[in-house]
Amino acid sequence: MSDREAVLAAFDAYDAVCKQLAALDFTRMTPAELFELQSRREHRARTTAVADHRILSALQAQAAPKDIGARSWPEILCTRLRISKDEADRRLADARDLGPRHGMNGELLEPHMAACADELATGTINREHVHEIRKALTAAAKHADPAACAELERVLATAATGITPRTLREVATYALNTLNPDGDGPDPAEHKRGITFGRQDVDGMIRVSGHVDAELGAYLKTITQVWGAPGVNNPADAEPVHNPVPNPLVDNPGMPPTAESVPPAVPAEPRPPEASPVPPEENWLPDDASVLAELVDYPPEPFAERRTALDTATGDPELSADQLAERRSEFDSALDAGEGTAAARDTRTKAQRNHDALKAVMRNALMSKQLGQHGGLPVTVVVSTTLRELQDAAGVARTSVGTTMPIRDLIRLAEHAYHYLIVYREHIAEPLYLARTKRLASKAQRLVMISRDRGCTMPNCPVAGIDCEGMHAELDWASGGRTDITGLGLGCGSDNQLAFETGWATTIGEDGRVHWHPPPLLDVGQDTLNHFHHPEELLRPPDEDP
């Protein structure tokens, strides 16, 4: 810490330099020079934030809000600096976590978030990184000890030095899932899931709200990304466009699915032909409504046989018809409330039953083979995991729509047909090396890319794999590139054109991943891989093999 005279002298020099900078004209400088100046400004803005933390820490150590004339420190900052309360709260939180602390005897203690304070002082991270790490630590503190939280902060602060705050959020989420795979409760999907339908408004609209679990979320996002695309299923269109692309799983791609090509979700037992009691004459109509009632095949009354047995066992001739009816009513009520019935065993709320019903509808729709295709694949959920996680039945899998799913949910989901479960160990039997025979990636190649890349390979791009295109990352097709899996990668629609329009270049590294190399003005030595879809890479210890 500097003494009083040194502090005042440094701030006098700082004020003079800031006044000089504000009067400068930058219009005659080249883009490269301006980028360099902007980077230097950003670096110093981060490092000088340390002064703000130390000023506020010293101020709060020497006085209380009432000594200054206010009820709280946010109120003081709002009045003194003319900032909003949200900004005042943020600055005080930064000072509390990143500023120095003093013990009871006056000894200097390190900040609460020491790793973040060190990285911020060197200018390698910014305030947004600190905000994401603070949120992660708050969540981790509910189920982890202080030592584990400190280690998590150190890992996240190190990872933040080369990624954007949004990618850091994904890394932090993955780390929290690793620390606490079961969530805050015994089963978050069991207790938090639920869909609630509100009252209908005067305009006919009904508000739907709630939370969906990982499985239903994957179903919904998979279907809506295709059937909710612009121009598809538009009720205002006189000739609405449905998904016109044939499903590659259907035997006859040019024909609509038939009953033979679409197996039912639950196999039905063969039924012998029954003669119809209705006469075949055209325009036949019975003269008497009672005749029509006799033709209706009503299902048997529930528990009818057991009630008949009850009547026989208690057939007391002294019981009146009303008494017998009352006894049967009590029997029915006991059945309804009995533990042996499915309804009695069901402890779900109405919102949870709505949720599970919608999930079943989505699952059956995905299993029907009638949703068409998207990007060369049938509209279905593609889930990738590792062999170790599958064998251990623990961990987190990732879906083609960018969501994560606990392994226990993945195993349950994989029991249903027509989902792709990719356990990456060996190549599948379909051709993955097409050379110059085909420009577009095959279905098998897209499955491998979704499993390997998970999403767009451009660094920090969050677009999920289902919305990406296959691109020739090693050598473009027009330049003689080959459609082989070793030279392909996923890229979203906009990033796929960067190499052709803005000077970005892509290569396949020794790790088999797509690396993006920026043009000179954007090259600051950043990572060439996209860790947004692979957050576990930034949490792996340096000495651990990938």
From TrEMBL:
Residues 234-280, 332-351 are annotated as: Disordered. InterPro entries: DUF222. Residues 264-280 have a biased composition (Pro residues). It holds the Pfam family DUF222. Transmembrane segments: none annotated. Residues 39-237, 325-453 form the DUF222 domain. It comes from the Bacteria. This is DUF222 domain-containing protein.
